[in-house]
Amino acid sequence: MGGTRTRMTASERSAQVLEAAVHAFAESGYAATKTDEIARLAGVSQPYVIRLFGTKQQLFLAALHEVCGRIEAVFRGAEIAPDADAAEALRTLGQGFDVFLAERELPLMLLHGAAASADPAIGDPMRERFGRIYRLIGELTGADTLESRRFVATGMLLTIMTAMQVAGSEAIPLPWATEILDDLRSSAAPGC
Length: 192
Description:
It comes from Nocardia rhizosphaerihabitans. It holds the Pfam family TetR_N. This protein is mainly α. The chain has a domain at 63-186. Helices cover 72% and strands 0% of the residues. The chain has 10 helices and no strands.
């Protein structure tokens, strides 16, 4: 049965490489990830990856921006009631963490971005994007600095627990992790 194959457009191929990069960087981090591994995952050649994105650093930044954009989109998509107070709005926004726990690459990529921030070319954009996410939380919920900080702190705790595989869909059930997660659920803490 013969069929015609549809060629991908340049933008579709670029998106495919970017998706492979997010996956690879989330698993191995910036320093340990090789562009030939990303190329293999995307089904393209390593020179093609470089032609699309320039350098590994530029590809990492593109992947980081992609992930931060996805996080912002999840928060913007939260259905916060118009009359909700800050605490209720934060609880609604916190339901977005279900997405982050299911899409494990999002929190892992965020952690790798933070870890690579000693490099000014990565650190400056990482700090800017993290700050945007922090500001967005306040804008969407009306939360003050303390409430926003607590929300981010809880979110980072969940991010670290996801990286350690003690939270999320593939969680290894450990008593201390279960205790924390149960406490977050029972207290309806923002970020849970």
